[in-house]
Design brief:
isomerase, three-stranded parallel sheet, seven-stranded mixed sheet, 10 strands, HIBYL-CoA-H, alpha/beta
């Protein structure tokens, strides 16, 4: 297949694959040293090119992957966000956080509303911002090595990039549990809760792309999605070739632990869990040492997001994310995990019971600046 390739040294590369009967745009995350963590430059490159392909009638579909066998995308560039928080005086705007979250969520919204088949090849680590990209794709492929998480409970942020939307729409209380605990999930979990459409072996990637390039794209755009789905299904791994799903195995326990009417009750139930199961025990321990502010935001967003449109969710999350950059715990969580690496964050609150409604309400206020997502 012929292709036209962009600058191969850029943090995101682009090419147009000339198939037998049509053209597919390919975008590849190309920052393997940082596990393809999304920088503002990467977000802007993706937004510009996807916008062009969205309006180009000769592009029938888009393929999104990464130049790494280890990770699709391990999140956002939170070290740069940390630097911006350190540099922002008390009471002043954090313009980098405003821009980063605003443009990231605009990109995520474009993916969700792209209107053409958009295939995301989810291999290896898929966390935070990477999950935002995957969740927005119309065709979500997970490989056998997919390792998915929204681990913001450890750093004082919250599961953003549309997490308030897709976590609240997962079966039962699964989304709430994953948000509170930052639990890692595998390919089988992803399929079970809607974060993946099909599981395909990573070694089949070239063959899948070749098969897509053989498609005869007709003038009925409504059929393009089903054509792509049929190709992907032809490469799908059998269920017995996949690992066990901890989420499915523990579904009843997850719903039981999260059935309380208030956050303190749910946190108490999870953190005092006495279980021999390693996956459940690790999830409980992560919440126990996590950020109470994040737990409160997860609880609030999970309940609010269930009744909101996708655009309204992104607008809400932008306010909350910018406020997180101004309220201290996010900065402290990143410091302890990635900067000083002492593993001893000094969060503002000892427990979720110490967080007042008035303090929590501050995160949902527009931070005195125009909303960049007002026109979504």
């Amino acid at each position: 297949m012929d292709s036209t390739v962009s600058d191969s040294t850029a943090p995101v590369t682009f090419e147009v694959l000339e198939g037998r009967h049509g053209r597919i745009g390919r975008a590849t995350l190309n920052a393997p040293k940082s596990l393809n963590a999304l920088s503002l430059e990467m977000i802007d490159l993706l937004q510009e090119q996807l916008s062009a392909w969205q309006g180009d009638a000769t592009i029938q579909a888009v393929w999104l992957d990464a130049n790494s066998d280890k990770a699709f995308c391990a999140g956002g560039d939170i070290v740069r966000l940390y630097e911006s928080m350190v540099a922002t005086p008390q009471g002043e705007r954090n313009r980098h956080a405003e821009a980063f979250f605003g443009r990231e969520y605009q990109l995520d919204h474009r993916l969700h509303t792209f209107g053409k088949p958009l295939i995301c090849w989810g291999n290896g680590i898929i966390m935070g911002g990477g999950l935002g990209l995957l969740a927005g794709a119309s065709h979500k492929v997970l490989t056998e090595t997919a390792r998915i998480a929204m681990p913001e409970i450890t750093i004082g942020l919250f599961p953003d990039v549309g997490g308030s939307y897709f976590l609240s729409r997962m079966p039962g209380k699964v989304g709430l549990f994953l948000g509170l605990t930052g639990a890692n999930i595998n390919v089988s979990d992803g399929l079970a809760i809607g974060l993946g459409d099909v599981a395909i072996a990573h070694e089949s990637k070239a063959a899948v792309m070749s098969a897509l390039n053989e498609l005869n794209w007709d003038n009925d755009a409504q059929r393009h999605d089903s054509q792509v789905s049929d190709v992907l299904a032809g490469f799908g791994l059998a269920a017995d070739a996949l690992p066990q799903s901890p989420v499915t195995e523990h579904r009843g326990e997850i719903d039981r632990l999260c059935q309380g009417d208030d956050l303190a009750t749910v946190v108490q139930a999870i953190t005092t869990l006495d279980s021999d199961d390693r996956w459940l025990s690790k999830a409980a321990a992560t919440l126990a040492r996590g950020c109470p502010q994040t737990a409160a935001l997860v609880w609030e967003n999970w309940h609010r997001g269930a009744d909101m449109t996708l655009a309204d969710v992104f607008r809400m999350e932008w306010r909350v994310a910018v406020q997180c950059a101004l309220h201290g715990d996010f900065q402290e969580g990143v410091r302890a995990l990635l900067i000083d690496k002492d593993g001893q964050p000094r969060f503002k609150h000892r427990s979720v019971a110490d967080i007042t409604p008035a303090y929590l309400a501050e995160f949902y206020q527009l931070p005195g600046v125009p909303d960049p997502l007002a026109d979504l």
